[in-house]
From TrEMBL:
Swiss-Prot/TrEMBL keywords: ATP-binding, Membrane, Nucleotide-binding, Transmembrane, Transmembrane helix, Transport
GO molecular function terms listed in the Swiss-Prot or TrEMBL record: allantoin:proton symporter activity; ATP binding; uracil:monoatomic cation symporter activity
Name listed for the protein in its UniProt record: Ureide permease 1-like
Keyword Transmembrane attributed: yes
Record bears the keyword Transport: yes
Compartment(s): Membrane
GO cellular component: membrane
Transmembrane segments: 6-30, 42-62, 68-86, 93-116, 128-147, 212-233, 253-278, 299-318, 324-345, 357-377
Pfam family, one: Ureide_permease
Main location: membrane
PANTHER family for the chain: UREIDE PERMEASE 1-RELATED-RELATED (PTHR31081), UREIDE PERMEASE 5 (PTHR31081:SF16)
Length: 381
């Protein structure tokens, strides 16, 4: 069984996890903006997310061990992660990819890193670690300012359009909005009022006329869920609460990740199949038959699941070696998500100078945070 032991190896795992975990939300957002129902996308994503855990478990570890208390902690972590990932899928539509990732990541670090620091018997340098947590806390405040300023910019853009133009999206035929919308078919320029209406016409989750408070509430709920999955996984791998019988070995990280992903998969299937027939946020009703026949973007959804699965696995491998508090540096994933948001989706194009100042400040704070958290990495005996 391969085990990451060196601090350098742990940091390498964290950096690769940072890229993977920052990229998969962009892929999911791309599909929603092309009109694919999020229930369909998440079901596809869940399949390959579990597949990644199976590959990791059979490649690097083993599966059969007699330590069910630890397995239950791992599965509890999978449950809260599944709830968090499912929630962010709807939050992205309301408040954008960048702001959603910033807020959820910052809440995760402020709560989850603190819990992991004490669970890991303080192996991370507190004098370095908690200033990094402070950087994340400042980043979430700046993210709220970015969202507020950008929302005001968008409202100003839309005021120049007539009410008929704004309401065209409400009457858009669902079958049309589900079609892929490639670059060559987009007529409006990024950041313009016409682009905002065009986006509303083709996306799966309609946001015009709905309060952004809905999106922020979903985002904060997701952040709370994300803040708990890493401490639960930590307990599963290291048994700090001494739930195992004497002589029973700790659950190895790869086995814990397998059970973690199984519970994540099961809950995702239950909730998303329910949402097919009882959709939320005014989404159209679907069915299992419609899902099976929906191949538009399925490959991208599968790809997103693999990215997330391997990203989570690398995060846990790094955390087991250098401390899960330091591994929370991967929560700086908004650095990557914001890059994709600007490049692929035109977020913040033609925004005000005030928005750009807040955005630059937020990103600089994340750069500082990831550097500080990684510098606090310890070494588990």
């Amino acid at each position: 069984m391969y085990v990451v032991e060196s601090k350098g190896g742990a940091i390498a795992c964290m950096l690769l996890a940072l890229f993977l975990l920052g990229t998969w939300p962009a892929v999911m957002t791309l599909l929603e903006r092309r009109g694919r129902l999020p229930q369909h996308t998440y079901l596809d994503y869940s399949i390959t997310n579990l597949l990644a855990a199976v590959i990791i478990a059979f490649t690097f570890g083993w599966l059969m061990q007699d330590n069910w208390p630890s397995v239950m902690f791992a599965m509890a972590g999978g449950v809260v992660l599944s709830l968090g990932n499912l929630s962010t899928q709807y939050a992205w539509a309301f408040v954008g990819l960048s702001v959603t990732e910033v807020i959820t990541a910052s809440i995760t670090v402020v709560i989850g890193t603190t819990l992991n620091y004490f669970l890991d018997d303080k192996i991370n340098n507190a004098k370095i670690l908690f200033p990094g947590v402070g950087c994340f806390l400042i980043a979430v405040c700046l993210a709220s300012a970015v969202h507020s300023s950008n929302a005001a910019d968008n409202r100003a853009k839309l005021r120049c359009l007539s009410n008929d133009d704004k309401l065209r999206s409400v009457a858009t035929d669902i079958s049309t909005s589900r079609e892929a919308f490639p670059e060559t078919e987009r007529r409006a320029k990024f950041g313009t009022a016409d682009f905002l209406v065009e986006l509303e016409n083709r996306r799966a989750i309609k946001v015009f006329g709905k309060s952004t408070l809905i999106g922020l509430a979903i985002t904060f709920f997701a952040g709370i869920c994300f803040s708990l999955f890493s401490p639960a996984f930590n307990l599963a791998s290291n048994d700090q609460w001494h739930t195992l019988k004497k002589g029973v070995p700790d659950l190895v990280v790869y086995t814990a990740f397998f059970w973690f992903s199984v519970s994540c998969f099961v809950l995702a299937i239950i909730l998303n199949v329910t949402f097919l027939y009882h959709p939320v946020l005014d989404l159209p009703r679907s069915s299992l038959k419609a899902y099976i026949n929906d191949w538009n973007g399925r490959g991208w959804a599968f790809f997103a699941g693999l990215l997330c699965g391997f990203g989570n696995g690398l995060q846990f491998m790094g955390g087991q070696a250098a401390g899960y508090a330091a591994a929370d540096a991967v929560q700086a994933l908004p650095l990557v998500s914001t890059f994709w948001g600007i490049l692929l989706f035109g977020e913040y194009r033609k925004s005000s100078r005030r928005t750009y100042v807040f955005l630059a400040s937020m990103l600089l704070m994340f750069v500082a945070a990831v550097a500080v958290l990684m510098a606090s990495a310890g070494h588990r005996k």
